[in-house]
Specification:
- The chain has 536 residues and is α+β, with helices and mostly antiparallel strands.
- The chain is built from eight helices and 31 strands.
- Strands 3, 4, 5, 6 and 7 form a five-stranded antiparallel sheet that branches.
Length: 536
Amino acid sequence: MKLTWTILTALCFSTSLQMTAVITTFGQETVFSIMKSDNRKASELFASKRYRQAARLYESMADRAPNSKYYLALARAHYYLHEPVEASTWYEKYLTIESELPANDVLLYAEALASQKKYDQAVNYYKQYEKLSDNDPMVMKKIWQIKNRNYLLEDSLHYTIKRLDCNKPSADIAAVPYENGFVFLSNRARPSVIKNVDEGNSPFFRWYQSTMKTDSTGIIVHYGEPVSFFEKLQARYQLGPVSFFDNERQMAFIASNADHQLKGKRPLQLFFAVKGPDGWQFSRAFDFNGANYSITSVTVREDGKVLYLSSDMGGGQGGLDLYQSTFDGKAWSKPKNLGNEINTVGDEAFPSISGNSLSFSSNGLPGLGGFDVFSVMMSDRAIGEVQNMGYPVNTNFDDFALSLNADRSKGYLTSNRNGGDDIYEVTIDLQTYPFTIAGVLKYKEENWRESETLTVYPLAELELIDNLKGTVVARAVSDAKGEFNLTIPYFSQYRIKVTGSTDGDQAIVSLDLGKTRYGENRFELVVVKNSFKKDY
């Protein structure tokens, strides 16, 4: 994710065409004045998040005049370029000269070490930072997660991760399900008379579509060769992630704005398009695009009433934060920061909503190192508990841009676990929430204990109780045939309280839910008549 993340998270982009070479002569300038000028330029580049160019200048100065301040700047630049090996190398060089790191760099060094699976060293530096930060609770969680990382491996047998053969040596990222395949971003080279490149001399990102291919039996063989998607809307500069909604009749997308430029840089902004008889057509720009900040990724709920975006707009927790905006039928509301339950001083990006479950990537939340994928249940009233998706979705490398289908059983992931940014197909057989169980309620009479005879229990009230919270989270009533439907809102330990409709008798039935996906989600609940008691 080295180049990719720099492009997508940078505040804006360089937009010059690589068509000329500039030759500069220094005349009577001294080496000292040249280095002073380079240092100023490097500082300006770093401040504007153009880390690659800044690193080149700092490295040139370090070669000419070794200095710990250049080593520190290089370590920081490579960290923000998401190159942990290089960042660690420069931190190590810095520590050969200086006795200790600045407080914030202690944290960055710990993160870089964790990304290389050097967990013992990472914990040592996390502990140093913990003392310097007055017991930062997030760092305490990171230490706990690393020491208990086996918990993130327990569901690994229920995931299948497969690297797709349509990847190229270029960066292929942010695939989302579309029609019989997916749409994704790539900066693979394209035939062109004029070479459009970014500040790293890489081609701009463009959209591509790949379709599943099947054999005569209907079994999927592979994904077809990618073709350009929405060619007539291909922007002049960078394109970003897309999100389809309204049965794939509408889409939200990210692109650099050709009209907004500040000091040679262009922000990423949010736009919308609709699909008509003649294909996709641009419809509108997001009302809260800005010239001084970027919106780097977006997801829209299927009904088109809520979207989540990632942005470095002011007022956030730090870095890229996730925001929510709602649509009232005419306009989108001002984005609202999701707060520190989700956002951290690091980066949160690539949101993807399916049902009520929001997936996103973060390098600030506790994980296995680098960017990990997390999920959280979203409702109009509250935000659920953030969950790390665990291995093999997450590794110590950068894993991001997970996008799943409606029932969260299949989708796509981007990861650099094999060196470059590639797209992986993800298949999940874990039970997803919320889901509904159906079944029949029956009972035995007290004197039938030795009998297998069961009687349908009609018109009884069922209350689903969370054992951990001790609260009722769902209710249902059995019909005349004892049939019932009960919605399970989230994974937990549950019991069901059964109350008779005529005499008010009550009983408790345990409900054991595993993590794996159920077939038809059909249960037979049986209570014994002599177990009925009052006031559970």
